[in-house]
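Hi F.,

I've been meaning to write this up properly since the lab meeting, where we talked about keeping a consistent format for the predictions we share between groups. The idea is simple: the sequence comes first, exactly as it goes in, then the structure tokens exactly as they come out, then a line or two of notes. No screenshots and no reformatting. I'm using this chain as the first example so we have something concrete to point to.
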Amino acid sequence: MDEGNLLAMSLVTGILGLAWLYYVSASAEVPSVESGRAESFLGKQITLSGTVINSRETDKTIQYAVKEERYGQAYKVVYFKEGEGSLKMPNGTNIEVKGEMARFGNELEVLAEKIIITGYD
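Output, unedited:
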């Protein structure tokens, strides 16, 4: 096989591979926590997208009430502060939270590992 054909095959294969990766990533959906099914996610990593409707800061944590955008269910999100910084956000802030679904007492909450601000209402 000559060098020109090999180069053409490499380019075509690379472009097809990138197109396939784009399709797979665009069609992949992170499951939302349906109302009433949150218990089944206990101990699992989840992604929650929604709007901050309330927040409260303590010495060690910032706690948010987040209304999930897909089903409208409100969830408690707990972020453990590190260092001097504060992550207090006003109501109406749209966020995406990645963390673990946990139970504290009788209440379900998301222990946030990463919070991304996606916009404002």
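Notes:
The mean pLDDT is 84.
Residues 3-27 form the longest helix (25 residues).

If this format works for you, I'll send the rest the same way.

G.
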